[in-house]
Predict the structure of Helix-turn-helix.
Amino acid sequence: MTRRRFSPHALRARRTQLGVSQKKLAEVLNVAPATVCDWENGRKTPANHRLPDLATVLYCPMDDLFEAVAA
């Protein structure tokens, strides 16, 4: 069975692809800009309840924000 984890790189790639700043993403999600920075740098992971909103704002399926991890 393949495990999956949140991908900071996928988040940054999708956000920049859409031309959205960290500050704007933070405003829409009602979090601090430093929180988005922490997510993108792998220091923190978004809470599970934030993932659907994050995917909606970034116009992508939630699965696109995850990566496979070797078991």
